[in-house]
Amino acid sequence: MSSRTRRRPVHRPGRAGLAALLAATTALGVAGLTSPAHAAEAEPAAPTGAEPTPGTATPALVEGLDDAVDASAPAAEAARSHLAGHQERYRIPAPDRDLVTDSVTSEADGSETVRLGQRYRGVPVLGAQYVVRMAHRDGKRTVTGTSGAYFTALDVDTARPALPAATAVRNAVQEIRSGLARGGYRPAHARTAADDLSGTDRGLTVLPVGKGVLTRHVTVRGTDPATRAPLVQEVYVDAATGVTLFQSGGLPTFAAPAQAASGVHAEGTSMRTGESPRPGKPAAPGAGSGSVTGSGTLLGGRTVPLYLTKDAATGQYLLRDTAHMADSRQRGVIQTWDASSLWYQDVSGAWPEGVVPFASPAPKVGPELTGTGAVDAHWAAGQVYDFYRDTFKRDSLDGKGMTINSLVGVTDFGSPFVNAFWDHTKMVYGTGDDEYRSLASDLDVVGHEMTHGVVEHTADLVYAGQSGAMNEAIADYFGNTIDVTVNHTPMTDPDAGLIGGDLCRTRTPRQCAFRDLNDGASTAKFLGLPLGSSYDNGGVHMNSTIFSGALWDIREGLGGTLADRIVYRALTSYIAPLDGFDEGRDAVVAAARSLGVKGNQLATVKGAFAAHGIVPGWEKSLGLDSDVLMGRVGTLMSYTGSGNNPSAGNGWWAAPKSSADSLAPYAVRVGRTDGSGKPRQVSPNDGRSHLSPVTDGKRVVWVAVGGLVSPDDPYTRTYDILAAPVTGGKAKTLFSTTSEIGGLSVDGDTVAWSYREETSGRLRVFYLKGGATVPRQVPLGRQENQASEPAVRDGRIAYIQDGLFDGVYGVAVEVYDIATGATTMLGAPSQPEWISAPVLTDSGVYWLIDTDYTDDDLTTLRRADLDGSHVTDVIPEKSAHPVRAYGLTASDTAVTLTVYASWTQVFDDYNDSLAKLYQFTPQGTPLGRVSCSHGQQANAAADTGRRVLWLDTTTTDTDLVTRNRPAGTCS
User: Fold this and answer.
1) 670 C-beta neighbours (distance < 10 Å), count
2) More confident: 907 or 57
3) Which residues are catalytic, by number?
4) According to the model, what pLDDT value does residue 27 have?
5) Does residue 655 belong to any structural domain of this protein?
6) Residue 689: beta bridge partners?
7) What range defines the domain where residue 379 resides?
8) Which of 138, 154, 170 corresponds to the end of one domain?
9) What do you get for the CA distance between the two ends of the chain, in Å?
């Protein structure tokens, strides 16, 4: 401590790492960091004395420092010197070696923020960043505080041979593809099969879980076949086994998927691209003639001034503004481009060929450019730039004068596109439709989009779970702040908190808005979502107003000037990439203190978070109406679409689970479905990942995923089918292959599975019966056809056959009788868009099928007797009460469906858009909701009677839970 110290520092303990992230699909931080203990709420005066949480000895937040450092050294060098000089405080052994400079921000008041990214033996650590804050006074520089995440417990062998990039890319793409198919089978002919997914290797990354896990980072791009929204996912694949461990969003969306498809836009991030001064590309910063002041009319009818540039060659006035940033560091420009001939799929992550700047024959821009949204986009971009410059002295989105490009008018394969996104270098706005105007037509939306650029160049919050919700919350806060500031809207206006309320042609602002910062959302209704799914990336939109609502309350209580300074200071100088709601609260409170806020004003800041339930231990208050069989399952990955599915049979369950810190490979555990006794592990601790378990109540069968067969072969690794008694005993290997195994099923002495046969390259169904050691193939009428997704019961195997039937392509469910060798087709072949794996009961076969390409992906629940008779649509797609189900399980007395919300429906409560379980009689009579808990309910498994098990995310963890009867009607 410097001799100039005026008060002793307050330390808040460090995070536990990503243990909870991988052990629970939505917890803290990236929605996965263990929350630090909170210091007393008094003014900082002394260290709390709290012990750091496991995973790191480095404090998450230190306030009240006044330590002198070299005033003449570069800021990053001075920050590292400070950390190195206080080993007893930070426990960072070699800052010069292990911390690289992510960014340095200097403010007008002389303060500096240095963000340092952690490297472990040269490999980046996901989200690990330590922040050092410094001040200049009287020609001297002092460190005033630190915060962030540096993981001290890492011990990873980064030198061992890692999974080849080609294998990691293939596995990551398959992971996303399986997730988009929602565990079912999508035939090759299906309209949505062409997802155009591709992957790009980003190199090695350490996940800071326990002692660390070495992964390959892969960016997967494509189109969601259900919503047709652009999709970018950052996927982290275990460098030893090839199993996907974690995903985060690479394409932040303005609205959750269910809303986006109903006319809500999506804005996103993709990979960085450079600029080029060539024709048809963004001009070099500062190039061209000076700006001319023109005018144009916004879609709302208001005439506004516009900065334009007269093109010397054509005499046209381009929507190109060189005036705003004429004095900035890079002399960037604000330019608006005509992208009406382009599809959004062509512009994400790359500068498209053929795009041209909007142009007008006169300085007074005509109505044709108003109608496209170009005038709104150009004017609004200038307003957002002005706000950040005038309020915070920030020079453009990156703080260094970067050029601001807006592409306007993109379509969805030629159809209206009611979306917009930011892709690290530019804004992209869609056409709008009959109800929604161009997304650029509401200033708060443009402010939201551009603020994502500010977040990216400051805290860079990871887009998953709570950190992703904070990313959205801050974008909403400043987007709305800019709107109410420019339009002089008082904070007392009941519509002041609406986001996107002015986009509609006929609806009122409240009917039109996507979110309301005054909606009163609190952690009491936090919606748990699986982080391993691309669906809303763990609730980044659904939970965002919990945090943004607290920020908005602060603005209402303290006024805009002070509140905006506090939130901006927290964003730029305190918040780190992995922070969750608790850390975000601490950051905002600390930022307020740093600005001299105290007394009643500081109480207002703290009270705003308390009013929204962001208080220590809030996660523990989230309750279930079901019984937990195994908590914190940790199954973030799926394996060929089913690796995280539990299984149940005759009073027993089986499910995969990692260790408490998710450091150990996944193991198979079993237990009693009534909750009696303790779960036990049946798979060996052999370094492999043990996944996809199934049980009939007597034995458990699963897949063990091993390493590469040979370091010289970048594609081939081992897959073994193992079995063990549920009561314990040595595991036995039943079958080994180098092809991925799916559709595993067991009943009595029979085990069935499907995999891609090495010789033919086609999916086939195989089985072992009794003590046989050589698998037999289920025979097909045509060997060119494929078979997959088997289910076995009482000596019969039901499966899907895909191929030619009497010369006509189709898909059919068939039943093979092992004893007689007879094959029975259940109804005529059809050409569905999607079909589920069949489910066998003692009396019949059930399956889900989507045969209508135009009905919002509604599905039919179909049933047949085992002999192929009485093929019945129990719940038809075209009925009074159709379902949109993509999960099916059944017992002899009840059928349970995982029902997804409509893509075209707008919800008052985001919870209504999540997957929920509904139970029916075998005849299709509704029995009600299985559970009324909040959060997502999926991956259901039927036991006997009406008891069903499933994975539930209500508590922010992923828990294996059960009920022995449906909850009924949920109010």
Assistant:
1) 26
2) 57
3) 449, 541
4) 30
5) yes
6) 705
7) 263-454
8) 154
9) 58
Phi-psi category of residue 272: left, alpha or beta, with phi > 0 → left and psi -120 to 50 → alpha: beta
Residues 279 and 396 in one domain: yes
Complete DSSP assignment for 298-361: -TTS-EEEEEEEE-TTT--EESEE-STTTTSSS---EEEEE-TTSBGGGTTTSPPTT-EE-EES
Burial 217-250 (b: 16+ CB within 10 A, else e): bbbbbbbbbbbbbbbbbbbbbbbbbbbbbbbbbb
Is residue 911 included in any domain, yes or no? no
Q: Is residue 61 part of a domain?
A: yes
pLDDT band at 781 (very low <50, low <70, confident <90, very high): confident
| Confidence (pLDDT) at 366 | 96
What pTM did the predictor assign?
0.87
Supply φ then ψ for residue 969, to 5 degrees. -85, 130
pLDDT tens digits, 55-72: 788 999 999 999 999 999
**140 & 288 share domain:** no
Q: 855, 875, 895: which is the final residue of a domain?
A: 875
Domain-embedded: residue 339? yes
How far CA 254 is from CA of 419, 476, 509, 721, in Å, comes to: 8, 9, 17, 43
Which CATH number belongs to the domain containing residue 371 in this structure?
3.10.170.10
Burial of 905 (0-12, 13-18, 19+ CB in 10 A): middle
Where residue 749 sits, what CATH number does that domain have? 2.120.10.30
Is the domain of 658 the same as that of 785?
A: yes
Place of tokens 């394969």: 413
pLDDT given for residue 280 in this prediction: 39
Angle (nearest 5°) at CA 788 between 786 and 793: 135
Lowest average pLDDT, out of 272-276, 391-395, 419-423, goes to: 272-276
The number of folded domains in the chain is: 3
CA–CA separation, 153 vs 118, rounded Å?
Answer: 13
Average pLDDT (521-528) is 89
Closest to 17 (Cα-Cα) out of 25, 5, 29: 29
Question: Does residue 394 share a domain with residue 271?
Answer: yes
Average pLDDT in the 259-274 region?
37
- Residue 452 tokens read as 């994502």
